[in-house]
Amino acid sequence: MDVPCVRVPREEGERARRALADADLVDRSHGIVVEDGEIFIPVTDPAAVPDEFAVVDHEAPAREPQRMPADLLGFEPSYERLGDVVILDEDDPERAREIAKAVVASDLRVGTVVNRASKVKGELRVRDWEVLVNARDAKDARPPTETVHREYGHEFCLDIATVYFSPRLATERRRVAEQVRGGEHAFDMFAGVGPFVVPMAARGAEVIGVDLNEAAVAYLRENATRNGVEERVTAIQGDVREVAPDYEGWADRVVMNLPHSADEFLGAAVTVAGDDCTLHYYDIQHEDDPFGPGAAAIRAAAEPEYDVEVVTEHVVRSYAPHEHNVCLDVRLTR
């Protein structure tokens, strides 16, 4: 039967499949078809497919449904996937082990199953993890918490035990990256392993990525090379407030994704901002006034040296009851 499919030349098939899989758009109930030098990848939501891909109706064979953890457990477990690591957040150790066994026995691609053993803690925002199952090949020498995460056509190697990373922000990172133009100077103040840096560099920007976490900066350098953008990326380990004076007036775009305390670093953001700079400022605030405190903090830091225009007020996601994780896209004009 005919189903919506992304049609790409055969040589582009794997890149397209990865990009669609990262966006959770691949229709796994139908098989991928290769025909006359083209590949047809069934998709679940044609309207959500990025504009770079052509969507057509094409015949694709039905597949046997995947055996999921819920089929084995009799209930729908809550878990998160990051590369081949499956992440649980269970307080009951016995329930966690039961879910882990079902995850490994299912048709999911799984290397390791871990359970959160602490909250995000410390200056570097990392967690403790309990490794419930390590199903990787015995020859795989990687730490069980290291994986390769794919997101909109880019690959990010990371170890969740040593760095902070949230796959839930993939759509937001893409939203920001799509605003970037070739030749820009972009400055990511809290770069982590590079989920903002790499896509911005891939769009032709010259990017500075700074992070306090030495492990994150090492992965940032590796990921820049892995994605072929190392010549446009400078990775710096340190406190961005100490780094900023070296890049005074340099940036056309600044990313500030440290929502609990970004306001403490606005002085550094103003230092690196050029004459006309876009600031992506992330905040967590009560639903009654999610944007006001951030806008006020930016004005207090930037005025009167800059005219401050709030271009976009954007709710990224719900963070906690009555609290939102938000982003303000702000234009600073000297």
UniProtKB/TrEMBL annotation:
This is Class I SAM-dependent methyltransferase. GO terms for molecular function: methyltransferase activity. Keywords: Cytoplasm, Methyltransferase, S-adenosyl-L-methionine, Transferase, tRNA processing. Pfam families: TRM5-TYW2_MTfase, Trm5_N, TYW2_N_2. It comes from the Archaea. GO terms for biological process: tRNA methylation. Residues 79-334 form the SAM-dependent methyltransferase TRM5/TYW2-type domain. Signal peptide: none annotated. CDD domains: AdoMet_MTases. The keyword Amino-acid biosynthesis does not apply. It comes from Halobium salinum.
